[in-house]
């Protein structure tokens, strides 16, 4: 039977999706299952690794059935996954030794602080080797916590059977017939244990965190044949697991950002903005982090990334807390009704400011309010704060690489807001292209896997993505004026 379909798993923070793509890149069917968010009284956040694997198997079965595809027609499987979340398991029993520690969990805060207290030079060294500031959000600190606090993890390390992995490697291990223990550069670089210049585990970083290097997965190219699976007996002949990528990099791939200077922005609760930086390692001087994009078709590529805490969440705040709107979709009508000459700015520094400003102490402010500023003008300022923040990250990318950015490829809930998209195009001086496909991480992983398995020889998936484009049309003088006002507002938010 002809192998015409590619199966993609998107193992994300809230749940696990399975998506089937056809050989021409068309999305045929998708299913999803949520898993429990295990939140302890002390704020620790965990996922159950076995529950996630049960969901992986269930969604694979469901999606194949829903698509009406004969399992024998499925060529291969790709995996996209929540990054930084990590889990410990025993290679003798194949079972987890503890719940997965979720990226949002800051339990490794004290571990990172102790490292700096012991050796003040360590923070700079970690940043230099890993491309990212020392932080409990990356996997390294969480792995150190597991080794220090879970006796079973400590014992397995002593016995030489410990596996410490990101979610790609856990799903691969549990799903593959051969129990393959591997990862790839996009995930490995978000652990904070990888030397991003050489794309190998760093003994210096492992020693600094106290993480045993021999418990880490082999780093292989993102389009390797990592293993084979029958998905619990669904496939008579095991199919290859032939592509893996962390979710943001998978979305970058799904958006077809393969050329240096191409940028994608995901608008959700918060935002991830990522630039394809090409084959040379670029170090940010403007508040961004450097990671590996992938190793694909024999080429390694780097990305620059900026994450913003409050973008779509500003709209949720205007609805739930400030009660300025009843529904997120109301924001657009308010902004269109507002006086366009009003110069109110809102800086949503609810928990400080992230990329590219990095100020933990910044507080949110509303500034530039006049006697004629009303409800609609305040909603407009809230909406525009999303575009200004994303624009600042794009400008930092321009400054770090010297590359021109002409287009921003975007996805996520708030991209339905035409006012916001046009304003983004105007203040950032780019064309904003909204993707018609919502499942970009799954599409990226499917493309890598399908390419490795010989299903896709061109840009099959990317060609299926239709885009609505908003062209930047603001006069440069006006843009300058608006940006100067925004920057002054950010400076005010940072005065503390
Ligand atoms: P996530 O994947 O983070 O849950 P979504 O892509 O579903 O995010 O986007 C949800 C966020 O987008 C919410 O914070 C919501 O307030 C905001 N949002 C949804 N629709 C709109 C809209 N039309 N205009 C502005 N913001 C919106």
Task: Tell me briefly what this model is.
The protein is of the alpha+beta class and 496 residues long. 35% of the residues lie in helices and 24% in strands. It has 16 helices and 24 strands.
Description:
The structure is a single chain. This protein has 496 residues and is an alpha+beta fold. The chain has a domain at 5-247: Nucleotidyltransferase, domain 5, CATH 3.30.420. Helices cover 35% and strands 24% of the residues. It has helices at residues 49-67, 109-118, 122-130, 139-149, 151-159, 167-175, 185-188, 203-209, 247-254, 312-320, 330-337, 375-401, 418-428, 440-452, 460-463, 476-493; strands at 5-11, 15-22, 27-34, 38-39, 45-47, 74-81, 86-90, 100-101, 162-166, 182-183, 194-195, 200-201, 218-219, 227-229, 239-246, 263-267, 271-278, 289-296, 299-308, 345-347, 365-367, 407-411, 431-435, 467-470. The protein has a seven-stranded mixed beta sheet with strand order 18-19-17-16-22-23-24, with helices on both faces. Strands 3-2-1-6-15-14 form a six-stranded mixed beta sheet, sandwiched between helices. Strands 4-5-8 form a three-stranded antiparallel beta sheet. It is globular, with a radius of gyration of 23 Å. The mean pLDDT is 95.
